[in-house]
Amino acid sequence: MTFRFQLHHTDADTGARRGTFTTPHGPVETPGFMPVGTQGTVKGLTIDHVASTGAHMILGNTYHLGLRPGHQTVRALGGLHAMSGWEGPILTDSGGFQVFSLKGINKISEHSVVFRSHIDGALIDLTPEHSMEIQESLGSDVAMVLDHVVALPAERDEVQQAMERSIRWAKRCLEYASCGDQAKFAIVQGGLDVDLRVQCARELAAMNFEGYAVGGLSVGETPDEMYRITAATTPELPAEKPRYLMGVGRPIDLLESIVRGIDLFDCVMPTRNGRNGFAFTDSGPIKIRNAKHKTDTSPLDDSCDCLTCTRHSRGYLRHLFIAGEMLGPTLLSLHNLTYYQKVMRGAREAIQADRLAEYIATKKSQWGIT
Ligand SMILES: [Zn+2]
After folding, report:
1. How far is ligand 1, taken at its centre, from the CA of residue 362, in Å?
2. 281 CA to middle of ligand 1, Å?
3. What is the spatial distance between Cα 101 and Cα 91, in angstroms, rounded to a whole number?
4. Could you read off the pLDDT of 47-99 as tens digits, one per residue?
C-alpha cells in the first residue's frame, strides 16, 4: 500500500493523536507542520536549510506553479521533486484558496471557476479535473481537491451552496484522478456553521479519500470560532485517516487544534513573519529591528540549536535587517521554521507520554498567553 496512516497513541486526557503518515517519498510524523513552498521554494531557504529545520513534508501551490512556470514545464523538469531538489513528501493545494481569495474571479459555475491570472491577465478556466491534472503533473505525494472557498462573513445560503458544490467537485476530483501514487485529500467547507460542517464532513467521509482537510478557516474569524468549528468537524472524519487544518496558524493555534484532533498543518506565518523581522521563541515573540537589540550579543533563542541561534547574535541579525541584507530574512525564516518543528516535536512527545495538556500549559506560560 502506497499510503498508510498509523496511529501510535492517543493522549489520555485530550484525545490528541500521535501518528505516522507514510508516502512514496517517506514518512511524515504527526502532528506535523509543513513549511509553505509557494513557488517551488520555501522563500529564502535552500532545501538543505528546510531539511535542517526538521520538516518532513512541504507544501507547493498549484495556483502559482500552474500559472508560472506552468504544469507542463514542471513536468518537463521532472516534476516538483526533481525541479526543486526536495526529496521528501510534498503536498499541493488545489488552487481553490488562491483563486477565491485573490479577487480575480470572473465567473463561478458548476463547471468551473474562471479567473484572471495575476501575472498576465489571461482568463483561466479551472475545473476540478484541471486542478487534478496540474497536480498530477507536479507529481506531489498528496493532491488536494478543488473546493469553493467563501470569504467570511457570508450569508448562510451562500456558504451552503459553496459547501455543496465543494462536495460535488471533490467527487469529480476523485473520479478524474488516475495517479495511484498520489493521495487525494478532501476538504470540509461550511463556514462557521456547525451543521453545514458536519454535513460536509459526513458526505466526504463516505467517499474513499486518503485524508481529510478542514478548509476555509483562518480567514479572519476569531481563534475561538476556529477552535469551535475544528472541534465540531474532526469527530465526523474517519479516525484512521490523517486530518489537516489548512493555513493555520500561530504556535498556540497548532497546539489548540492538535487537542481537537488535527494531525497536519501548514502556514506562511513562520516564513512571512521571519522575512519581516519577527521571531518566535520560548520567551515570546521578538521584533529584531527593535533598537534594544543593537548591541545584544545573545542569540535569538538560547534554547534553539538552529544555525541562526548557534552562530549569530541578536545585534548582528538586527544589523542585517536594518541594512536590508537578504541574509536577515533567511536567518529568521530558518529559525522560525526550526521553532515550529520544535513545538510540534514537543507535542508528539507529550502525546506519547499522555501529558499534552501539561505541555500546552507550559508553552502558554512561556508565550505569555493566559
Ligand atoms: Zn534558532
Report:
1. 19
2. 8
3. 20
4. 999 999 999 999 999 999 999 999 999 999 999 999 999 999 999 999 888 88
